[in-house]
What we know:
Layout: E1 3-6, E2 17-21, E3 23-26, E4 29-34, E5 36-38, H1 46-51, H2 54-57, E6 66-71, E7 84-91, E8 101-107, E9 114-119, E10 138-144, E11 153-155, H3 200-203, E12 212-213, E13 220-226, E14 229-238, E15 242-245, E16 268-276, E17 281-294, E18 302-311, E19 317-323, E20 329-330, E21 346-347, E22 352-356, E23 363-365, E24 578-582, E25 591-595, E26 603-611, E27 617-621, H4 626-629, E28 630-640, E29 646-653, E30 656-661, E31 667-676, H5 679-683, H6 715-718, H7 720-742, H8 745-751
Amino acid sequence: MFEARPAQTGPAISPKSFVLEGTIMKNHVLLSASLILASCFAPWTASAQQTATAATLAAPVVPNVISYSGTLSDLNGKRLSSLQGVTFLLYKNDQGGTPLWLETQNVQPDKTGHYSVMLGSATAHGMPADLFASGEARWLAVQVAGQPEQPRTLLVAVPYALKAADAQTIGGLPPSAFILAAPPSSGVASATTAAPALTSSSTAPLVTSNVTTTGGTGGTIPMFTTATNIQNSILTQTGTTAIKVGGRLNLPATGVATSATGFNSRPLDFVASAFSSATTTAVAQTFQWQAEPLGNNTSTPSGTLNLLYGAGTALPAETGLKVNSKGLFTFVASQKFPGTSTITNVKAGTDLTGGGTTGTVTLNLDTTKVPQLATANTFTANQKVNGTMTATAFSGNGAFLTNVNAAKLGGLVAGAFAQLAANNTFTGSEQRFNNTVIVGPITSFTEGELAAGSPSANTPAMGAAGFTVASGSSLNGGDGIVSFGGSGDTTTTFNTGGGGISGHGGGGFNGGNGVSGLGGGGGPCCIGSTDGDGGFFEGGSNSLNAGDGVFGLTGSGFAGNFSGSINVSNQIFAAVKDFRIDHPLDPANKYLTHSSVESSEMMNIYTGNVTTDAQGQATVHLPDWFEVLNTDFRYQLTVIGQFAQAIVGRKIANHQFTIRTSVPNVEVSWQVTGVRQDRFAKAHPLVVEEQKEARVRGFYIHPELYGAPAEKQIEWARHPQMMQRSKEMRARQAAALHKIATQPPHDALRNGTATAKPN
């Protein structure tokens, strides 16, 4: 709501001032504007003509400024209190179009974000009076630096009084630019009183004009060179189609930079109009160039020239195209320059190295593939020379040289060398092979294509030592033996691959081990070193069935015998779980064996004794992990030494429970059983009854208990080939032992295979 009221009173010839007061609420932004504008002069009266002086006849200049106040906030709605660059713009419409006038000022708001400015005060001439001359609506927009333009506000009523300033001119020219018509006849009078004749002093024009020209040029847009002088500007207009600038076009910054922020230049807009079939309206296509600060508040500030774009009423936004102060372009991400013929990658071809996708790309010859004349070259494939080859010396074994005959090779005669196609006898006591030796398959249990004999007692028939690295080399030692079993036929069933190592211990009073392993000792050099394992075994996992890490069959002893602690990270399945120790009463001659308590649940048992107090109460304290590990508690109480009743007064809570007795000072033996609820127990719940998998149905863990043959033992279903091989090896071992037992004693002693038996 706006109200116009006189700001002061005075004589009829004094100008009247009006104040436009009001409040505009739009988008939660409170704006208030007060504009003080002068009205036109009132008509002179007869009495005023007789008493007015030259000073009272001089009309005061209308102030071409508008007082405007508002608030400043950031993009999050937080009030701003620091110095800001603010641009004020006047538009013809509430949306779209280009501004009719704009001005940028440095605005200092108070602590609450409020500010007041005088629009037009940035220039000596203020706001152009012709902004309101047409009587059309004007819309005011406010834009804080770095923020989008705020919604426009309609200016109404008093601002259009700026047109009143034009009352001092006629078509923009002062009265002195016109010649007055002849004064009216003195004989003419009104019906009531005769009007006095105007004197020459009141009708004559001023001697000089307030604004002068020095001669204009057609098509040139004039400008004020002083407050009272108009001359040609550097702008010329050709018809209504083009304006030419005869000098430099400056678009200055919208504010003065501070350490806190820099300011963009005023933009240069290019607007096209494109028709949208979707909205059936014309849509403005605005391309905008503007200079933007770079590295503000640094030792090397600079700037870039950026291209922005906006469609319709949208504010132009950055496109990503910009030019820096050295003329280097930055293009939109993923754009290829200068076109589709851009080289994006240089790859090295055959016999070349190098290449790349960025920077300076270099290609070189691959000297491992292309021989060089001035260096030594190694040819790994056959080379053919059609001419004559001349050499001062040959190195190597000369296997591929023809027509070369020598009596000695390396000073040795031909008989000193082994021949591949002949049987060779090595007379040396030790033969070493520094490279890989491949030996054919062993064709039988006792004989094969690789055979070796022990030179003396307690000496292995064959040995292998891994490579020992130099001290301080930080390298790993080589393996003594690496062997791989041959693959069986994988296209049909019931075929087994060969073992990597198959060991058969020798017979004797004490049989030898089939395989013996001893882990190496860790080095004392470094913290964290570990000793080696005596054996490492990992089952296969391709078919997800029967891939045991270690598979052992009981002979005359145990299937597995461990002298020391055993660490098992998962479940143990056994028909019975016993402990065996030396008998406490006769440790030298007897064992003492106990069996474990079994259950269909994973249960833990805890026991103890406690005596109630004078009130017949006792508290049993448990570990702090008790309720995390266990659940579903069961209690058992037994009174000791007297007849009394005992009950659980309070169940387990906060790691304790209480016992109450019918009389005081009673000793009670207690037992608490809990079902495990730890993460492992939950992940591996006990399955009490389950079906056997298909391949082991009809087989037994202990077939002899059910009258079934040994081949119905469950491992015959899981590892049939291995069980068959074990059966055959035991048969051969039994045959060998029988042979030793039945041969004459002197032959056995001569062969070193028999031992005298004690009487």
